[in-house]
């Protein structure tokens, strides 16, 4: 699924122009990051938005990135992903306390569950980095919809 970097509209495969804003899309419908007048390209800014939560917040506050829908989407998606990771960490800590009922087996199960969860987060994070560097707006199931809604709000 490709999106226009100018307006963010979905682009049909094989087309060379965006139907919504009539901007030219190179690569047969795959949105490429356009270079702004100053600063870094959109795909680099989108990639950096995923490094930690700090660049994501900075990109939402600093012009011209806070006016770019592509960068705002990735910044919001990273912020929501970090909030989800913190919420899952709290749940795992509660499960660790609850696992003290069955001391050895309970703790091992919670540790194994935690390991699977954090490996999953790491894989998702790597995929988000790759997709942002390619200029794509790859949406996570629930978080992506929320991020898209926030990115479109401006």
Task: Describe the protein.
The protein is mainly α and 154 residues long. The chain has two domains: 1-32, no CATH class; 38-152, no CATH class. The chain contains five helices and two strands, in the order ββααααα. The protein has a two-stranded antiparallel sheet with strand order 1-2. It is elongated. The protein starts with a strand and ends with a helix. Mean pLDDT is 83; it is low at 27-36.
The sequence of SSEs as H and E is EEHHHHH
- Overall form: elongated
Rg measurement, Å? 19 Å
Largest beta sheet, briefly?
2 strands, antiparallel
What is this entry, summarized?
With 154 residues, the protein is mostly helical. 56% of the residues lie in helices and 3% in strands. It has helices at residues 42-48, 53-61, 69-98, 103-133, 143-152; strands at 2-3, 10-11.
Features:
154 residues, mainly alpha, 2 domains, two-stranded antiparallel ribbon, 5 helices, 56% helix, 3% strand
Secondary-structure map:
Elements (H helix, E strand, L loop, with lengths): L1 E2 L6 E2 L30 H7 L4 H9 L7 H30 L4 H31 L9 H10 L2
Antiparallel strand pairs: 1-2
């Amino acid at each position: 699924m490709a999106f226009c970097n100018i307006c963010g509209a979905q682009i049909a495969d094989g087309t060379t122009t965006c139907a919504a804003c009539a901007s030219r899309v190179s690569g047969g419908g795959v949105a490429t990051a356009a270079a702004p007048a100053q600063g870094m390209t959109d795909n680099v800014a989108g990639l950096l938005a995923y490094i930690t939560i700090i660049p994501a917040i900075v990109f939402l506050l600093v012009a011209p990135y806070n006016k770019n829908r592509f960068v705002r989407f990735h910044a919001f998606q990273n912020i929501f992903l970090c909030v989800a990771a913190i919420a899952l960490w709290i749940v795992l800590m509660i499960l660790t306390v609850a696992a003290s009922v069955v001391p050895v087996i309970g703790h091992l199960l919670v540790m194994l569950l935690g390991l699977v969860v954090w490996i999953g987060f790491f894989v998702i994070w790597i995929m988000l980095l790759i997709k942002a560097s390619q200029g794509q707006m790859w949406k996570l199931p629930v978080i992506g919809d929320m991020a898209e809604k926030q990115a479109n709000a401006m």
